[in-house]
Amino acid sequence: MEYSSHDFDVIVVGAGIMGSSTAYQLAKRGQKTLLLEQFDFLHHRGSSHGESRTVRATYPEDHYCDMVMESSQSWEQAQSEIGYKVYFKAQQFDMGPSDNKSLLAVISSCEKKSLPYQVLHGQQVADRFSGRITVPESWVGVLTEVGGVIKPTKAVSMFQALAFQKGAVLRDNMEVKNIVKDEVRGGVNVVVADGEKFWGKKCVVTAGAWMSKIKEGHEAKFAIGSDFPTFASYGEPYIYGTPSLEFPGLIKIAVHGGYPCDPDKRPWGPGISLDSMKEWIEGRFSGLVDHGEPVVTQLCMYSMTPDGDFVIDFLGGEFGKDVVIGGGFSGHGFKMAPVVGRILADLVLSGEAEGVELRHYRIQRFQENPKGNVKDYEDQVNTFPNQK
Asked: Tens digits of per-residue pLDDT, 343-382?
């Protein structure tokens, strides 16, 4: 087929981590690919920026473990192609009350997926981490080898560079105003704000919606490359974090939660109250991490679904299988971007994806049950009242 400069095999709308990974997957399969972004590339207005994201295969839901394991290998493959690192390995340590349903489901999932793990109790936790992490006697910890830190902005840049190297066309500051079915040629027409129009046989839409100070003398003990892990704490509040990497002497500790916002009118000032997090830091790190005010804070926008699971599906309707959507990654999808990109590329090219149960991610589930997938454990994302 002959193409004009505005005709493509696949148009990808949204150049965050998911869209950029998808464009890379498509371009390396020889597809003429266009990647469109409404803002500047590598902007800080969405969910794909910042200094770190964690990697963990420990999920209450069984179906995420395989995706993380595949993505872990794919991160290494992509960074070998580009020639620099975006993925820094570490162990993963999950902790919480011994009767916490989510944590118990994590252990069950590890068993089902044959993911090696070790359960640690009270003093065993302090011994394993040389006193850097302590937990109450009523808590347990789960230690696994599949953890680590990803550099988000660098990772997005990596996938965009690889896509470009393999022939993809990248255009930023191109706000998509409409996607319409082409009744004559088939495929879809994608219209941007200035009136420019692009045609694609297929289209993928991925347009989706912090740090504490280590006390002097102990910095190396909390750095990536030591035996200090990425971590998550179940219960209230749900907290996760990473070892020191980009900023010497600082570790990232984050509350997995927030409040509803309009992505075009989001606040940039202080987020939720940090009192519960400060109390958590004081109780977990044996006084080695300053639990006063954070040195740096950064808000990240989540695109939430009611059940916290992704949406990966065909748009359907008049578009049939010509438009595939990926969204609702709910604050935990970044680590799985390589496999999400692979799945979206599979769907748009062949209509099916290998090695993944897409029933968990169908749009239709919300029509069957407004809350989506039914789960027998607590929400991990805490939703707070709207901020004014």
From this structure: 999 999 999 998 888 999 998 888 888 888 888 776 555 5
φ, ψ of residue 296 to 5 degrees: the values are: -135, 140
Residues forming beta bridges with residue 330, ordered by sequence position: none
d(CA 21, CA 290): 37
- Cα–Cα dist 279/277, whole Å: 5
pLDDT of residue 131: 94
Q: What is the pLDDT of residues 270-293, one digit of tens each?
A: 566 678 888 998 999 988 888 877
Burial class of residue 313 (count of CB atoms within 10 Å of its CB; 0-12, 13-18, 19+): middle
Question: Which residues sit opposite 45 in a β-bridge?
Answer: none
pTM for the model: 0.84
